[in-house]
Amino acid sequence: MNEYRFEDIVSREEDKANYTRAEFTVTVTAEMMRSFLDITGDVNPLHNDDEFAKSKGFSGRVVYGMLTSSFYSTLAGVYLPGKYCILHSVETAFRFPVFIGDTLTVSGFVKTKHDTTKTMEISAQILNQDGKKVGKGKILAGCMDE
Predict the structure, then answer these.
(1) Is residue 135 part of a domain?
(2) Residue 14, in any domain of the structure
(3) How much is the pLDDT for 144?
(4) Among the four residues 45, 54, 70, 126, which has the most C-beta atoms within 10 Å?
(5) What is the spatial distance between Cα 108 and Cα 11, in angstroms, rounded to a whole number?
(6) Considering its fold, how many domains does the chain have in total?
């Protein structure tokens, strides 16, 4: 877990070459899908019925968009800024479907910092194992004092 403090973070606006960024990879599993269903109660057959999803033109069950977007919370709370993060908002867009077994690279960088409020805007994206951008996001996060 990273422990960036607000004053240690460099935005791309401040330094276009040496700004603060982070990434991690995760493989989406059937267990993750079951857990998400248990938590949310989202029984939509597109996510839970392989044959239904295939009948709609997909190669299999489509991973919940909000499951993939939940990795933005991991990006902010574990990596950027990490331990001292307080998440204010996440805007997300789903560009392409994600499937069970896909390996995702979740990355982000600090676009801007706001000294008065100790907040930062993080530009984020999710790429699949083929390098296809399946999601993008804008995260507003703050840094708490120790």
Answers:
(1) yes
(2) yes
(3) 87
(4) 126
(5) 11
(6) 1
- Residue 58 lies inside a defined structural domain of this protein: yes
Which CATH number do you get for residue 116?
3.10.129.10
Task: Tell me which residue range forms the domain holding 40.
Answer: 6-143
HSE-up (13 A, CA, CB side) for residue 69: 17
| Residue 10, beta-bridge partner list | none
pLDDT value at position 145?
Answer: 76
Per-residue confidence (pLDDT) for residue 146, from 0 to 100: 66
pTM given for the model = 0.93
Q: Decide: 33 and 64 in contact? Cβ < 8 Å.
A: yes
Strands (E), 2-146: 21-27, 85-94, 103-114, 119-127, 133-143
Residue 1 lies in a domain: no
Mean pLDDT by 10 residues, the chain (146 residues): 93 94 98 97 97 97 97 97 95 97 98 95 98 98 85
Laid out side by side, the sheet with 21-27 consists of 21-27, 103-114, 119-127, 133-143, 85-94
